[in-house]
């Protein structure tokens, strides 16, 4: 695995950083999304044959990280091109690829992703949303919660379960559900979190879908699901690292300029050392994220799963610490709207919670990597 970024990756970082800084912390989501699409950044991971850039999650994570570091993250990048675009590119039919991938790449269409449920969280083994056959169609019934951007998405990729005809057990399957499908309802969830993308609870009441709404093979199950979940973890790490870098940059600027007594406060080790530690933690998290992206793009799905979980864990922890230290460095100013970092306190916690909690990642590493017995 390369440990130093290529010249192409460095150039991509520079270009995306410039885009993010032009839009700034008070960015307009639609305007930034449109410009990023025109520049080819939204579909950088999608196949060239379908209008994408032909890169991978390594390139897409750079885009999201640099936008976040400029204070202008695009949350739907995690969902639309990373999860949904990747799943369709790998497992979709030719018709699904033709319909969705060029539009996802050029930003004219977006797709949301629904897996989390009120009683199951994101535990794929407890998902109760079910799909049953009705002639040539499917009928989808269930509930989803904390689904981002459903109001702006043209369709939602829903994780349901179908009955295995051989074993009678339920297995996960993926369905494309159009926004205006009869029986597909949504309720806006009021959040304390400050974000441009809204969260929704979804209800699916016998939503009738044609056979071609099924993505991939009905029997592929978890293989197809984790083809989307591993990029989700890697991109969440990028989101967190970018946010942490943005907060840290504000704190560094303030610590250089703010003078109490005779020297800038950044000269004092009580200020300087925690900021240095935050920087180190973010850099280490980025290395694991890069490893995870490299493994995924090389088709090493099992190894990528382990690395993606570790990257998401490390980035979430580093982000929370960086934001907390940034606010603390500014003191009272850190809580003002003028400096714009207090709102990141809540946003940073998301990286510890979603799309999988740090405790479940520790469970994964303890029994998958270390071979320890399960407690659940």
The percentage helix is: 40-55%
Question: How many DSSP H or I helices?
Answer: 10
Note the gap between the termini. Answer: 34 Å
Q: Gyration radius, to the nearest Å?
A: 21 Å
In total, the number of strands is 10
Secondary-structure content class: alpha+beta
Q: Sheet with the most strands? A: 4 strands, mixed
* Largest beta sheet: strand ordering: 1-4-5-8
Q: What would the average pLDDT be, to the nearest integer?
A: 93
Gross morphology: globular
**Helix/strand order, N-terminal first:** HHHHHEEEEEEEEHEEHHHH
Estimate the strand proportion: 15-25%
| Uncertain stretches of 5 or more adjacent residues | none
What labels would you give this structure?
376 residues; alpha+beta; four-stranded mixed sheet; 10 strands; 49% helix; 16% strand; globular
Mind explaining what this structure looks like?
The protein has ten helices and ten strands. With 376 residues, it is of the alpha+beta class. The strands form three sheets. The protein has a four-stranded mixed beta sheet, covered by helices on one side. Helix 4 (76-91) packs antiparallel against helix 5, helix 6 (222-257) runs parallel beside helix 8 (301-330) and helix 7 runs antiparallel to helix 8. The chain is globular, with a radius of gyration of 21 Å.
Blueprint of the fold:
Blueprint lengths: L6 H17 L5 H10 L18 H13 L6 H16 L2 H13 L4 E4 L15 E5 L2 E12 L6 E9 L6 E9 L5 E6 L9 E11 L4 E2 L6 H36 L1 E2 L2 E2 L4 H29 L3 H30 L13 H10 L4 H12 L7
Parallel strand pairs: 1-4
Antiparallel strand pairs: 2-3, 3-7, 4-5, 5-8, 6-7, 9-10
Helix pairs in contact: 1-3, 3-6, 4-5, 4-6, 6-7, 6-8, 7-8, 8-9, 8-10
């Amino acid at each position: 695995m390369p440990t130093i970024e290529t010249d192409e990756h460095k150039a991509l970082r520079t270009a995306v950083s410039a885009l993010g800084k032009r839009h700034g912390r008070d960015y307009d989501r639609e305007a930034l999304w449109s410009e990023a699409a025109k520049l080819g950044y939204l579909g950088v991971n999608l196949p060239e044959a379908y209008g994408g850039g032909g890169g991978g999650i390594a390139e897409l994570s750079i885009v999201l990280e640099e936008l976040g570091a400029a204070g202008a993250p695009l949350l739907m990048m995690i969902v639309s091109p990373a999860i949904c675009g990747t799943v369709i590119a790998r497992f979709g039919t030719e018709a699904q690829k033709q319909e969705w991938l060029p539009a996802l790449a050029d930003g004219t269409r977006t797709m949301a992703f629904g897996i989390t449920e009120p009683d199951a969280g994101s535990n794929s083994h407890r998902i109760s949303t079910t799909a049953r056959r009705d002639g040539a169609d499917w009928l989808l019934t269930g509930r989803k919660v904390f689904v981002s951007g459903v109001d702006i998405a043209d369709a939602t990729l829903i994780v349901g379960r179908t009955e295995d005809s051989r074993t009678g057990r339920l297995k996960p399957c993926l369905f494309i559900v159009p926004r205006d499908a009869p029986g597909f309802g949504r309720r806006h969830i009021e959040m304390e979190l400050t974000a441009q993308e809204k969260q929704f609870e979804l209800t699916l009441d016998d939503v009738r879908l044609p056979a071609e709404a099924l993505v991939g093979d009905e029997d592929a199950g978890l293989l197809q699901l984790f083809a989307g979940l591993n990029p989700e973890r890697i991109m969440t790490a990028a989101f967190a690292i970018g946010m942490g870098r943005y907060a840290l940059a504000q704190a560094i600027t303030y610590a250089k300029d703010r003078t109490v007594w005779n020297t800038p406060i950044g000269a004092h080790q009580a200020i300087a050392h925690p900021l240095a530690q935050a920087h180190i933690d973010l850099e280490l998290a980025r290395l694991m994220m890069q490893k995870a992206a490299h493994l995924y793009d090389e088709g090493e799905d099992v190894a990528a799963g382990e690395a993606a979980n570790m990257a998401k864990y490390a980035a979430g922890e580093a982000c929370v610490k960086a934001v907390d230290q940034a606010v603390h460095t500014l003191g009272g100013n850190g809580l003002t709207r003028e400096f714009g970092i207090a709102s990141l306190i809540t946003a940073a916690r998301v990286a510890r919670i979603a799309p999988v909690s740090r405790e479940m990642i520790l469970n994964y590493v303890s029994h998958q990597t270390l071979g320890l017995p399960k407690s659940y």
